[in-house]
What we know:
Number of domains: 1
Helix content: over 70%
Shape: globular
Number of strands: 0
Strand content: under 5%
Amino acid sequence: MLRIFWIGWLFNLKNLTNSLFFVLISVLQPIIFASIAFFMFDRGDRGGGLLYAALGAGLMGIWSSTLFGSGGAIQWMRWQGTLEIAIAAPVRFLWILLPLTISTATIGLYSIVATLFWGRVFFGVPLSFEHPALFALALPVTVVSLGLLGLVLASTFVLYRQASAFSNLLEYPVWLATGLLVPLSLLPGWVEWLSWVLAPTWGMEAVRNAALGGEVWTGIGMCVLLGAVYLVLGSFFMQNFERRARQQATLSLT
């Protein structure tokens, strides 16, 4: 299974790297949002504000890449006529889809690199991290947890042919609900309750605290815990939705 996962992850990562759309949402879009945030934070007196904005914009790009990649994965298979073949393969469909969702989150690492580079060169963002080793650990843990959240989303798209359109509605609300755009303390109390079950919230906390100083292990631990929950839910949904899609004949576009 590890070999299947590795090959699938590498194959999909290469495909996504050649996609202009993913280059746009992983590099250009975060840079635009980061530039706006830099001008806003530059007017304030908050310490580490520019680095705070750069990391937030970078994780926004990771979420966008995960969301659209997971939402489009099943649809791409339908367009190419490979969905039925993949589901009928001896390997469980979960092990075919999981590397794809993880690779879409991985491609989002371009966002972090792009926003930090952009901020350093054009806005003088200091790239001195309080806990560099923990930052190097928190980032991949966050990426994997977001990829597993993408697995939960992608599993629902097996059943419904047009479900990928729903992914367009989840980009900005999750940016807000997880504190990527603005601190959660500025939002209504019920939003904070919702944010606790979303991995980007804890990933953002871990990455920012590793960079700016603060408790890192809580965020990392919650990402690992939520990732495990997402994997169980994704496996359960995949099995049930796959069976229902077979019964309702909704796998193919024809």
